[in-house]
Amino acid sequence: MYEVIEQGFETVLRYGILLMECIGVAVILISAARAVVRLFNRKSEHISLELACKLALALEFLLCGEIMHTVVVRDIQELIVVGAIVLMRIALTVLIHWEAKNEQSEISEKKGRGHDY
Known about the structure:
The chain is an all-alpha fold. Helix content is 85%, strand content 0%. The mean pLDDT is 86.
């Protein structure tokens, strides 16, 4: 009975991981496509800021999938790989947030000085 519950839990968890990763990839693809369209149409002055925010959101979904993956890790080698991926994605998320914050402060600074941005 325990094995059936464990197998069911692992199956649900694996589908959850797949769903989080698919959402993350979809956010990246859609955001990149929208940024390219806006770039060529010149519809937005702050394309890079918008793209950075969307990439950070996508990384959050991907990170969620990796954290869920740690539940089904079977050996230490796999745990090390998952841990390295988690650390890399956290670092990327922090870097993107930092870059977006700096760009937002530059935009606010330029608006404060009267530049039309």
